[in-house]
Each structure stands twice: as C-alpha cells, then as structure tokens.
C-alpha cells in the first residue's frame, strides 16, 4: 500500500501523554461488550500497567473476547512470558510477538487498542507509567514522559481493526496458504479504502506489503510543504532520502524544525548529532529536548497535515519494525498539535551551528565513530535498505 488511504467522517481527538491516554484506554476496556484487541511494545508491571492488566482480565471474565499481543523483546523476555501466562490464566488470549527472533529481527513497535470495532487508540504510548523511564532501568523522570496518541471513532476504525486482527493471526500458527490469504484480504481492504477521500489515513509498516509506507508519507508531505514543518522524534537516524527531504524543503524556504529527544542513550545521541552540521548548514532548525524523556513521534506540515504514531525517524522504525501511524488532514487538529509542539520547542534548547563547528576533536571523532557503527549495523539488520 504505497498511497495514503484517506477515510472521511472520523472523530479524531489528541491525547496528551499518560494523563489523558490511560483514562481513555481504561474506559474503552471497561465499556467493551464484545471484543478487545491490544497490541503494544512494552507492557510493564507498575501500578499504571497493572490497572490495564486487571481491566483486561475483568473484561474477559464478563465474556468479552480479549486478544493481546506483547512484544517479547520490548517487554523483556521473562516479564513478557510471565504476563502472557498470567493473562491467559484469566481467560485473556495473549501472545508474545516473535519470541527468540524465530521470525527474523523485526519487532512490533505498534501501540494500538481497538474495542468493539467502534473506538481505536493509536500513538506512541506503551503500557508503562509516565514517570518511570522505559529503558529498563526504571529511573524516575522529573516530569511525565512527553508523548501523544489519538482516540479515533468513525469508519477508519474498521481498517485499524483489520490490521490488529491480522497481526493477531500472524502471531499464531498459520500455514503458508493461510498467510497468503491474509495478505490478499488486507490488499483488498486497501483497495476499497482508496475509493473514498478525506480526513484520516492509517499507515502501517511491515516487511511485506508496506515496507516503506510511513517514510513515503513523510517524503510526500515534506515535498509538498509550502510554509513550515515541525517533526518530533526521540531517536533521529534516518536514511539519506529522509535527510534530503528535510534539507530540500528548507532550501525552498520552508521553515523546517526538528525537535529531538536527547539524554537517554549516549550512542543514539552521538549518531543523531553526527547529522547536525550538514542539516544546520542547509537551513534545518534543530532543537534538543531535555525537560524529561521525549517519546513522541509526531509531525505537522503547513496548516492541515499532522501525524501521530509509533514510528521513530531511525532505521529500526523506518526499515525493520512493525509500526503504525495515523495521518490527519484537518486544520483544527493540526493547530491543536502545533500548540503542544510549540511548547515543546520552548522547553528545549536550540542547537547553533557554531556549537558543532567548535566541538573538540575527540567529540567529533566519537560522533563519527557512532555513525559508522550504527550505519553498518543497520545495513546488516535491514538487509541493505538503510542508507
């Protein structure tokens, strides 16, 4: 599916971090009468996550069909297996995604809930408390993790459901014939959707039909940008095409702002900063966010294009993992998200070109070394797709 699949008539609401996301998530689970699908990268065992776990169990107890997919690596092998066993014992159908890398290196990095095919939640938030770091160290954060999701009602929910249902079936025991049939059904779903136009589009990335769908959406939006683009990511390490799209937009006079999370992983920071000098020279404004952990994967372009989802701007998200974003063409929603991003930029530190031209040689050497290690490793992991 190489095109955006726009569907009209959707009610899309922005959810700001866990304060707004978890009440919506729990309300959807508590009110479900027929079925719940939940897919997540991280599902921890803190008090917030335990509320979600208990709500899923209670739903299964009252007769709701509950299906949960948890990434085996993202949640930690032992913790993921323990949680799946606990959920299954309570009547929840739960599975780990790609245990022991039996189906290659890809992980499911998607964060999606669909309840009764009537409401969907999609974005960047894992099932983990906002005030605890998500890197395995469980360190307290100074402020709630900065992240976004959307609550979706309307016809696009039907397509979100088909994606999570397909993922559920893929994690089970499907023979080759059944897998081809599943691909055919999803392809037909996309064909039907393209006959309608308008407000919101679901974008998924996998390693079969949709290898570059999310990146192409960004490239198209940047290529058509006329006035401004604000892109937010915790991990910045895209391939050449993405970087060229940023600088090409800036060279046309588009105000391109890149808001990057820093301070979580030293190697990741060094890789991101290895790109800074060229981006800055070509007119891209870069802001580093230090207030708390930045986990948002969002962007706005001009006045009526916005995206919220799970995809970072790095090799793993753009070329390997399973991801899900929603694109919204709506001026009111874009303005609402812009206000949040403007506050994030205000909370960050603008990077000056002079800051990097005057770096000590040891720091430049470290950034260059990190870039070479990352690029070569990602080329291997993505079978040469990362450039």
TrEMBL record:
It comes from the Bacteria. GO terms for biological process: cardiolipin biosynthetic process. It is found in: Cell membrane. The active site is at residues 109, 111, 116, 295, 297, 302. The keyword Transcription does not apply. Coiled coil: none annotated. Signal peptide: none annotated. It is a peripheral membrane protein. Residues 104-131, 290-317 form the PLD phosphodiesterase domain. Keywords: Cell membrane, Lipid biosynthesis, Lipid metabolism, Membrane, Phospholipid biosynthesis, Phospholipid metabolism, Transferase. GO terms for cellular component: plasma membrane. InterPro entries: Cardiolipin_synth_ClsB, PLD-like_dom, PLipase_D/transphosphatidylase. GO terms for molecular function: cardiolipin synthase activity. Catalyzes the phosphatidyl group transfer from one phosphatidylglycerol molecule to another to form cardiolipin (CL) (diphosphatidylglycerol) and glycerol. Belongs to the phospholipase D family. Cardiolipin synthase subfamily. ClsB sub-subfamily. This is Cardiolipin synthase B.
